[in-house]
Amino acid sequence: MLDDFRFKHRLRVRWAEVDLQKIVFNPHYLTYLDTAITDYWRTVALPYEATMHTLGGDLFVKKSTLEYHASARYDDVIEVGMRCARIGNSSLQFLAEIYRGDTHLISGEIVYVYADPATQTSRPVPQPLRDVLLGYEAGQPMTETRLGAWTELQVHARSLRDEVFLQEQNVPQDLEWDEFDAQATHAVTFNRLGVPIATGRLLRDPADAPGVARIGRMAVTRVLRGANLGSGVLQSLLQQARAQGWQQVHIHAQRSALGFYSRFGFVPHGEVFDEAGIPHQAMHVVLGP
User: Which residue, among 235, 157, 226, has the nearest Cα to 190 in the 3D structure?
Assistant: First the structure.
């Protein structure tokens, strides 16, 4: 049953994936499992490449099996349930099932071996990785968001903002780093390995009206976007704004993120403007009790 899986990944069958019988060509189901496992790593808040580099190993497929129960067809919406079912000394077993509604289409198994990336000789699965995967399957949270001053969180927030704003978006350093960091309340989200993966800040800008706070410098490490990490940071900062007694919160949102902020009640005002070469839109939200 799909309900037996904590992790689920939804996708839609594309025309290029069906054969002359108008059903999914059988090797594509392995692609569906591979796509799901990529999202599984995102869900457990582990940037795969960086994590494996830090742990000093990598995962190599030892076995992939599929059992076919029924066929998916073009434009079907299907869901892949996946779980880490067993961790041995050097192996990890993932079990998967694919459904269309209540119809069970596919059962699958992937066995990985944790190994030295240069020699591909097996190594024991590191305890931190073991703890993350078993913790996720046991229903434990995968992240922790900390609020604090710049003196407490500077190292972690700087590394994220350097990655996202300076390196990825080419924001000039003199625009990124300002005097407000020392005055702001910062939020940083960490994964279970203690790696910072998302950040933002809350402050009082003297240019704003009384009772208005400002949230900014929202950043999520690129490979983990889409895993609700930005939502966690924003919710923490909004809760902090209420606790500090602010009546409104303003942001300068990158235009590509308007939908994200709208989901939290932010509404746009004014015209789109350029900031650091990126289109932005001013938005605000009125805080309730």
Answer: 157
